[in-house]
Design a protein that fits this description.
single chain, 414 residues, alpha+beta, three-stranded mixed sheet, 15 strands, 25% helix, 24% strand
Length: 414
C-alpha cells in the first residue's frame, strides 16, 4: 500500500508498475508534451516537467521506496528533492538529444555531450626577444594514459566485476529515521573503497596495480608566434590526461611575457629610455640602441634640433610585429638629458656659452625701496629630497582642492 499515487497518476501507471512499464509511459508522455514540439502551449511544458519529475523518482529504486512509504513530503525531508532538470533527464533518456529524437525536435534540447578528462594548465614564460622573433619551445609534461597492458580494465579480462554493494556508484546512500524526520547521507562503499568495481588481488594488472592508468612523459612542441600577446592561450586538444570511459583531456599553455631590461611593450609599440648628454641635446649627435633581434639602430639627433628633458621621439616601424599579421608597431624613445657636473666651466667657457646660447631670462625689476638680501643655494640630503617631493605633489592642487589651471565656478547671487 503506497501513501500517495500522484507520480503514478502523472505517468498513467499503477503503483505496481514494472520498470519497463514506467519507461514506456515516460517515453510516450515526454515525446507528446516536449516543449520543442509544443512551442505555444505552456500547459504542455508544465506537463513535461511533471512527467520528468515523476519518472526521475519512480525510476530510482531508493527514491521510489521512500516515496511509496512517506510520499512527496518524505522525499523532501530525506534530502531527495530537486533532482535534474527536465531537459537533462530527457537528453539522458534519449542519448544526449541526438539521433532521431534530436532531429525531430531540432536544437532546442540541451546537449550534455560525452564526459571529458580534466584540462592540464601550464604557464609558459617567454622573453620579449622570443616574441619578437618567434620560436618553438619543447616542453615536457607528465600525464596519465590508459594502461596498455590491461587496456584500462585494471585486471584480467572478465576478472573486474561491478560492485554489488553500490551497483558501481562507489557511494552508498544510507537512511535513518529520527522521530518524524528522515535523515539521508552518503558514505564511501566499503566493499569497493569507492571504486565501483571489485577485482581479486591475484587478477589485478601488474603494470598499473589495478589503477587502469599509468604516468607517461610527453614532450610537446609549443609554437610561439611572432607578436603573440601576453595571456594568449595555446591549446593541444586530446593531449591531456586519459581515463577509461571518457574523452582525453586537453593541455593549455598560457603565454606570460617576461619583464625586459631595456624595452617596455604596449600592444605593438615599444618604449625605450635613452640618456643623452647636454651637448648631444643641444648640438646633435648619434645614439645606438640594441634591438630585440641583435640589430643595432643608429639614431641621429640632427644638429640644431634641441632635445628637451623628457621629450619623446618616434622611429616608425621598429616596434613589435603584430600577431599573425606581422605588420610592425613603432619605437618610442624618451630622452633623459644628463646635465654636466657642477663647476665644470671656467670663466672663459662661461663667456663663450653666454655668446652662443640665448640670453638669460630677464627678472622683474625690483622696487626702488625694496629691501634686498643675498642667499646661496644649498644641496639637500635624501630626507630633504622626500620633503621637497611631497611639497611638489601637494602644489598640484590649491588649498580649495581645485587643480592648478582649472577654471573656478562662481555662483551667481539670486
Amino acid at each position: 500500500m503506497v501513501k500517495e499515487t500522484k507520480f503514478y497518476n502523472t505517468l498513467g501507471v499503477s503503483p505496481g508498475a514494472t520498470d519497463a512499464e514506467l519507461k514506456s509511459a515516460y517515453k510516450k508522455g515526454a515525446l507528446k508534451h516536449h516543449p520543442d514540439k509544443n512551442a505555444h502551449n505552456p500547459e504542455a511544458a508544465e506537463k513535461f516537467k511533471e512527467l520528468s519529475k515523476a519518472y526521475e523518482v519512480l525510476s530510482d529504486p531508493q527514491k521510489r521506496q521512500l516515496y511509496d512509504q512517506y510520499g512527496e513530503e518524505g522525499l523532501e525531508q530525506g534530502g531527495m528533492g530537486g533532482g535534474m532538470a527536465a531537459e537533462d533527464l530527457f537528453a539522458q533518456f534519449f542519448g544526449g538529444g541526438g539521433g532521431a529524437f534530436g532531429s525531430m525536435f531540432g536544437s532546442g534540447m540541451r546537449d550534455t555531450g560525452p564526459k571529458k578528462a580534466r584540462t592540464i594548465h601550464h604557464v609558459h614564460k617567454v622573453s620579449l626577444e622570443d616574441i619578437y622573433r618567434g620560436k618553438v619551445s619543447k616542453l615536457a609534461l607528465q600525464k596519465s594514459i590508459i594502461c596498455p597492458a590491461c587496456e584500462g580494465r585494471g585486471g584480467k579480462e572478465g576478472a573486474v566485476k561491478t560492485c554489488t554493494g553500490c551497483n558501481g556508484a562507489g557511494m552508498k546512500t544510507m537512511m535513518r529515521q529520527m522521530g518524524p524526520m528522515i535523515q539521508r547521507f552518503q558514505t564511501v562503499c566499503p566493499d569497493c573503497q569507492g571504486e565501483g568495481e571489485t577485482v581479486r588481488d591475484k587478477d589485478r594488472c601488474k603494470k598499473c596495480s589495478g589503477k587502469k592508468t599509468i604516468i607517461e612523459r610527453k614532450v610537446l612542441h609549443v609554437h610561439v608566434d611572432k607578436g603573440v600577446k601576453n595571456g594568449h592561450k595555446i591549446e593541444f586538444r586530446g593531449e591531456g590526461d586519459q581515463q577509461p570511459g571518457v574523452l582525453p583531456g586537453d593541455v593549455q599553455f598560457e603565454i606570460e611575457q617576461k619583464p625586459h631590461p631595456r624595452f617596455q611593450r604596449k600592444e605593438d609599440d615599444l618604449f625605450y629610455h635613452a640618456e643623452i648628454d647636454l651637448l648631444t641635446a643641444l648640438a646633435g649627435g648619434v645614439i645606438h640602441i640594441e634591438h630585440l633581434d641583435d640589430r643595432w639602430l643608429s639614431v641621429a639627433v640632427e644638429p640644431g634640433e634641441v632635445i628637451s628633458p623628457g621629450e619623446i621621439k618616434m622611429i616608425r616601424g621598429q616596434g613589435m610585429p603584430s600577431f599573425r599579421h606581422h605588420d610592425f608597431g613603432n619605437l618610442y624613445i624618451q630622452f633623459d638629458v644628463k646635465m654636466p657636473p657642477s663647476h665644470f666651466n671656467s670663466p672663459e667657457k662661461i663667456q663663450m656659452l653666454e655668446s652662443i646660447l640665448p640670453p638669460r631670462q630677464e627678472q622683474p625689476a625690483l622696487p626702488g625701496d625694496a629691501m634686498v638680501e643675498d642667499y646661496p643655494l644649498e644641496d639637500i640630503d635624501a630626507s630633504g629630497q622626500r620633503r621637497a617631493q611631497g611639497a611638489t605633489n601637494m602644489d598640484d592642487e590649491d588649498e580649495d582642492g581645485v587643480p592648478r589651471g582649472a577654471e573656478r565656478m562662481q555662483c551667481a547671487s539670486q
